[in-house]
Specification:
Chain lengths: 285, 81
């Protein structure tokens, strides 16, 4: 009697996928002005892209770097003069945060040393979707600034329903009030005027004041300085020529990337103009 | 160039590169932080002292995010050696 294997692999895994019992694939769809186009895999031909197996271990995949590189594909984008590149697969989490203590009523010294606490995701992996697109394919006219955000949707009967969105990290967690969290997740940046009061009158200073008293005096509101940080971008740096306030990551593509050794985790605030938030975009493209 | 950005996750700043030393900002110069700074290449370096080494965390080439930790072999705490 033959029994079906419970494992995804039958032996050492390589880029051919010969010993994989499960192969994950994906397609890319460009939605522009309401029109949907399935993008072509220029490396393999066709419209299917493959995802590498996770880094199971060094016995199954001795050289994961080399293995994963085989899953970087060129992808053609209509009306784009050069191909883009895409990789979907497991990566080391690039984010830096002290999640546990922050959400434990700021169980730390918020004015202590900036490098004195653990990065609680430093030992985590995360499935990542990386897409590198030529600048000329993303900008319009003479404005070098672009805005980006992600959404996640779930199948709801016969259509997709947006259940999450993310530009700047932790906005929904720390800025948006409980009654509006689902609404924010289902919304678009162009409609963010409805959430303006959460930015101009943020709750986080109230929390800090409740925990630390006079050591954390609440700033005067409205916090119009935060409008630039969260909604419009900074004029002359990453604010579009014609801006509609909306929560997203805004990138000035005319500013060259900073080489890794010269990067600063505070980005522009650390006098590094070339990466607004290194925790999110360590190397701007 | 007129830079009006005053705050970001990590620290509050006045002049560029003068984080935490500004006395006229809305938070009175307090350099609020969660304390976590970019870690080294593995969990053994979760606590970082001294210079940030972004190259340890990110690759200089596409896809820029670093190679994931292998599931095996494991150390005593379950984190890959």
């Amino acid at each position: 009697m033959k029994t079906a294997t419970p494992l995804i692999l039958a032996g050492r895994v390589d880029a051919t996928g010969a010993n994989l019992n499960v192969q994950q694939t994906y397609t890319l769809t460009l939605v522009r002005h309401g029109r949907r186009e399935t993008l072509r895999n220029e490396t393999l031909g066709g419209e299917v892209f493959f995802k590498p197996a996770d880094n199971i271990g060094t016995k199954a995949i001795p050289d994961y770097d080399d293995y994963a590189r085989s899953f970087i594909y060129e992808v053609s984008i209509p009306d784009c003069s050069a191909p883009a590149r895409v990789f979907v697969g497991q990566r080391k989490d690039g984010f830096v945060v002290n999640l546990g203590e922050v959400f434990d009523l700021v169980h730390l010294n918020p004015v202590g040393p900036r490098d004195g606490e653990p990065n609680t995701v430093s030992d985590k992996n995360v499935t990542s979707l990386a897409l590198e697109v030529p600048i000329g394919c993303l900008t319009r006219g003479k404005d070098p600034v672009i805005g980006g955000w992600t959404t996640a949707s779930l199948r709801d009967d016969d259509h997709w329903k947006q259940v999450s969105r993310l530009g700047m990290p932790l906005v929904n967690e720390l800025i948006i009030g409980l009654p509006d969290k689902d609404k924010f997740n289902a919304s678009r940046p162009v409609d963010d005027g409805q959430f303006l009061h959460y930015v101009t009158n943020p709750f986080l200073p109230v929390l800090l004041n409740s925990q630390f008293g006079n050591a954390a005096v609440m700033p005067a509101s409205p916090r119009n300085d935060l409008v630039a940080a969260f909604l419009t971008g900074v004029k002359g740096l990453n604010q579009p020529l014609k801006v509609t306030p909306g929560e997203m990551l805004r990138l000035n593509t005319s500013i060259q990337p900073t080489p890794p050794p010269a990067q600063n985790d505070l980005g522009v605030l650390g006098a590094i103009w070339r990466a607004f938030r290194t925790a999110v975009a360590p190397t701007t493209m | 160039m007129d830079i009006t950005l005053r705050v970001a996750e990590g620290a509050l700043c006045g002049a560029i590169g003068n984080c935490g030393a500004e006395t006229s900002d809305p938070n009175h110069g307090l350099p609020y932080t969660d304390g976590a700074r970019a870690a080294g290449p593995d969990a053994a370096h979760a606590h970082v002292t001294g210079e940030i080494k972004a190259a340890d965390t990110y690759l200089p080439i596409f896809p820029y995010l670093n190679t994931p930790f292998p599931g095996s072999p494991n150390g005593l705490n379950g984190v890959a050696k």
